[in-house]
Design the sequence.
């Protein structure tokens, strides 16, 4: 057995979980997942859609859908990207928003992703589709590096593969990185998509697949695993930093430990001694007496070999010394959603973190008669099969989460309840919001449809919520959300009027008066609200001369200041939002971004493999103007027919090196010509490229 080394430091500073997002079977988001767990929901079912005819499992809906435009990814590249990358991009965006961090903030954030599956890469290679985007689309390293690149994260960026314990092993690395000061914030993720039947057959050949299609953790009926899929993302900060910033804390991570069996009966047979060792070390590092642990989220796969070993290891470390009437409660989310393999650990951790936050333990399913090979009473263990609330006198709570990889890498994480604190009482001075004082509430989206969807979601969130201070809502809208190109602002004095204007924005009935400064306003209503819409960078000369001129001055009161701040936001100008909303405002929880997803999938009917051969007959003739414009717009991911500055360099237009290769390849394929790798270097603007393709020297010849 491999000896453990203390890489994080015994009793190191706790780390706070300040943001979470997930997409699991039967649950499209964190709230849906908690509802599924509380009601004891079973999300196992037969394959459907792209997985039609597959054996029962925990499947995600609509894995082909993705909001490529938001992330600046062309449709062509999106189709060649592993859906696991796409899923992580969207969930990372939501996890940051949940942590009240603007997704465009960037900074010294580390990214640690657990994954052990490459089904889309397998599909790509089997189809012989080779393209400039194939490497970045399917290589596993880009599960982490894609996040770091898009979000502007400068901390460590790593993919961890320890099999089924990958996501908890990734969390262990994140803890070490935070405590060493390599990053100030960490994003930890786990992802698993079961896109082909090959993975099913591999597990079946190993003898680990449940023939009944249900996970029976620690039960007499245990007959193997049920595969599941999904992803979860956590945002972590040092606890002191999170408390100082006023962050919501779901729970704390007190410690983690990872080891390996280092031998045993076989490569895939778990070892009790190693599991006991990793448990002992985790609680030593956390400074927690194992007898005080309230609950452990099991690895709990429901296999005949694995469950008894795990039970005996738990009983030997955490059950010892407990009175018979206070056994350790255990359970497994695999009974709800299946075994998520590379994402299994993070699924169990999100369940446990939510349980600590709500102080309520959801039931574990499919446990009716104990496994005869597991002496639950003697080990002081009890499977928690009913929903139960933790009582106030049971805190502060400590829980554990286990995840064991096929091949012997074991991980255990110790979680603690968030510190209990009361919000600072209002002191002397201005209240958070003076009655009747106008407050700007901001919205933005990458498309008009996204903006309307955000308005509808926010109206639903605010409707009937008398407890929400408009200044808190406004501050959150200004500081915890990305400021995207399509913008709107509502200046309101009361929640009902704000909700009414948001509904008008959602329905597109808010008016369209356009000012010379580029903003659009429907005028100040009798209820004191004003609605502004527009885009950053709008110029007065771009507007029709018949439109109204600048608004007349309305004095120097708060209404003028609020409207001026709203107009500045709409036009992309800087604003001191803390000064606008005041020092008492605290960001409220807002709806998460409404992605505008479309289907993208690998096209295996045609090969995308490189330019035509040198002796190929030309397949295209005509003016290259439309060809270059259409291909460039498509590769940039812009709407068909979008304007393009022909004299701007391809770099300034947004083409990176991979996009440049894709453009050269597409032009070559369309024209039937063999083009040099330096094509866009030699002709760096669309106008230059069009002229080169038009010249007599290139027609009917190789273009070198």
Sequence:
């Amino acid at each position: 057995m491999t000896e453990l080394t203390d890489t994080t430091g015994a009793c190191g500073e706790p780390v706070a979980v300040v943001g979470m997002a997930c997409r699991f079977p039967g649950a499209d988001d964190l709230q849906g997942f908690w509802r599924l767990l509380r009601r004891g929901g079973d999300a196992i079912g037969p394959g459907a859609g792209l997985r039609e005819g597959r054996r029962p499992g925990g499947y995600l809906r609509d894995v082909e859908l993705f909001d490529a435009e938001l992330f600046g990814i062309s449709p062509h590249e999106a189709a060649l990207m592993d859906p696991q990358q796409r899923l992580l991009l969207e969930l990372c965006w939501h996890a940051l928003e949940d942590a009240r961090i603007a997704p465009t903030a960037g900074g010294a954030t580390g990214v640690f992703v657990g994954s052990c599956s490459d089904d889309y890469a397998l599909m790509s290679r089997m189809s012989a589709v080779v393209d400039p985007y194939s490497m970045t689309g399917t290589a596993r390293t880009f599960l982490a590096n894609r996040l770091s690149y898009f979000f502007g994260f400068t901390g460590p960026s790593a993919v961890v593969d320890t099999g089924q314990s990958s996501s908890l092993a990734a969390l262990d690395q994140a803890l070490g990185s935070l405590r060493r000061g390599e990053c100030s914030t960490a994003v930890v993720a786990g992802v698993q998509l079961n896109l082909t039947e090959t993975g099913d057959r591999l597990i079946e050949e190993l003898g680990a697949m449940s023939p009944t299609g249900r996970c029976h953790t620690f039960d007499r009926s245990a007959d193997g695993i049920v595969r599941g899929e999904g992803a979860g993302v956590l945002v972590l900060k040092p606890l002191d930093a999170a408390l100082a910033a006023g962050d919501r804390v779901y729970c704390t991570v007190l410690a983690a430990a990872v080891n390996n069996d280092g031998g045993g009966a076989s490569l895939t047979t778990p070892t009790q001694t190693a599991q006991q060792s990793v448990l002992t070390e985790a609680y030593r590092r956390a400074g927690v007496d194992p007898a005080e642990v309230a609950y452990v989220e099991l690895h709990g796969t429901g296999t005949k070999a694995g469950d008894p070993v795990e039970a005996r290891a738990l009983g030997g470390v955490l059950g010892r010394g407990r009175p018979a009437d206070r056994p350790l409660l255990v359970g497994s989310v695999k009974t709800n959603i299946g075994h998520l393999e590379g994402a299994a650990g993070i699924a169990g951790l999100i369940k446990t973190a939510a349980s600590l936050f709500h102080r309520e333990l959801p039931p574990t399913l499919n446990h009716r008669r104990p496994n005869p090979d597991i002496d639950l009473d003697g080990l002081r263990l009890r499977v928690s099969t009913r929903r139960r609330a933790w009582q106030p006198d049971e805190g502060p709570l400590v829980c554990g989460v286990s995840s064991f990889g096929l091949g012997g890498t074991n991980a255990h994480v110790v979680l603690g309840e968030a510190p209990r604190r009361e919000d600072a009482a209002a002191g002397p001075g201005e209240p958070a919001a003076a009655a009747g004082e106008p407050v700007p509430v901001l919205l933005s989206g990458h498309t008009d449809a996204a903006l309307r969807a955000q308005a509808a979601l926010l109206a639903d969130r605010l409707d009937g919520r008398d407890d929400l201070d408009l200044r808190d809502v406004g501050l959150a809208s200004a500081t915890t959300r990305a400021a995207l190109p399509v913008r709107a602002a509502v200046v309101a004095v009361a929640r009902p009027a704000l909700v009414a204007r948001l509904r008008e924005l959602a329905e597109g009935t808010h008016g369209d008066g356009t000012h010379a400064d580029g903003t659009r306003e429907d005028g100040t209503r009798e209820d004191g609200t004003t609605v502004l819409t527009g885009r950053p960078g709008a110029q007065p000369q771009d507007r029709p001369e018949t439109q109204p001129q600048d608004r007349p001055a309305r004095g120097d009161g708060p209404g003028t200041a609020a409207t001026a701040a709203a107009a500045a936001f709409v036009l992309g100008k800087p604003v001191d939002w803390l000064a606008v909303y005041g020092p008492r405002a605290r960001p409220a929880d807002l709806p998460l971004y409404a992605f505008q997803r479309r289907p993208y999938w690998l096209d295996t009917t045609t090969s995308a493999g490189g330019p035509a051969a040198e002796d190929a007959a030309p397949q295209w003739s005509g003016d290259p103007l439309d060809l270059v414009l259409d291909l460039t717009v498509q590769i940039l991911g812009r709407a068909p027919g979008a304007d393009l500055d022909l004299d701007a360099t391809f770099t300034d237009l947004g083409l990176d090196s991979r996009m440049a290769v894709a453009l050269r390849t597409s032009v070559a394929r369309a024209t039937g010509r063999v083009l040099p790798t330096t094509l866009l270097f030699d002709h760096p603007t669309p106008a230059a490229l069009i002229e080169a393709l038009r010249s007599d020297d290139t027609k009917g010849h190789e273009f070198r």
In short: The radius of gyration is 28 Å. The longest strand covers residues 251-260.
